[in-house]
Amino acid sequence: MFEDCDSEDRRLIVAARAGDRSAFDRLVADHASRLLGLSLRMLGEKSDAEDAVQNALSSAWLALYRFDQTKPVAPWLTTITINKCRDIMRRRRISRLLRFEAEDDANSIAHPDPHQEERLIIRQNLEFLQREIVRLPPKLKEPFILVVFDGRSHEEAAKILGISRKAVETRIYRARNFLREKFEII
């Protein structure tokens, strides 16, 4: 929920602005795992997701003096993280274009198990879904991930992305339809 920055966050922000790195670390500690999950869903690769979060937190540290203390920290960090994910996705597209790289398909190694085939199918479906979410156009992927995986309301996602609530609803609807169509193919 969008709430005003609480007094503890304000105290940490003041200390961090004065150069106290440990205050900044405490300020962002509660958000790091959520931001990593968000980045992983957007990018699909753990190392890229970790890079995006690290870059986002570095950028937040450098931009802390511009942070409006009347606003909550979570949406600010989420916005920075989404922007870092966008940067990585742009670099990927350029890299693929320049090197003509084909995307790798995930290889699964089967384990001896009585329900091996069922688990393999489930895992393959989850991997397929993750790849398709990563392939969604950013304007569909961002609101979808914020609402479905990050647990944001449509209104919160709209504020973070700078679009209307109706645009968020429409884009999530289109993302779900796109994913549903992909699953009908397999």
Automatic annotation (TrEMBL):
Keyword list, A-Z: DNA-binding, Sigma factor, Transcription, Transcription regulation
RNA polymerase sigma factor 70 region 4 type domain boundaries: 129-179
Lineage top rank: taxon: Bacteria
Gene3D superfamilies: 1.10.1740.10, Winged helix-like DNA-binding domain superfamily/Winged helix DNA-binding domain (1.10.10.10)
Pfam family, one: Sigma70_r2
InterPro entries: RNA_pol_sigma-70-like, RNA_pol_sigma-70_dom, RNA_pol_sigma70_r2, RNA_pol_sigma70_r4_t2, RNA_pol_sigma_r2, RNA_pol_sigma_r3/r4-like, WH-like_DNA-bd_sf
RNA polymerase sigma-70 region domain residues: 27-93
Family per record: Belongs to the sigma-70 factor family. ECF subfamily.
PANTHER family xrefs: RNA POLYMERASE ECF-TYPE SIGMA FACTO, RNA POLYMERASE SIGMA FACTOR HI_1459-RELATED
NCBIfam families to which the protein is assigned, alphabetical: sigma70-ECF
Protein name, entry field: RNA polymerase sigma factor
Origin species: Novosphingobium mangrovi (ex Huang et al. 2023)
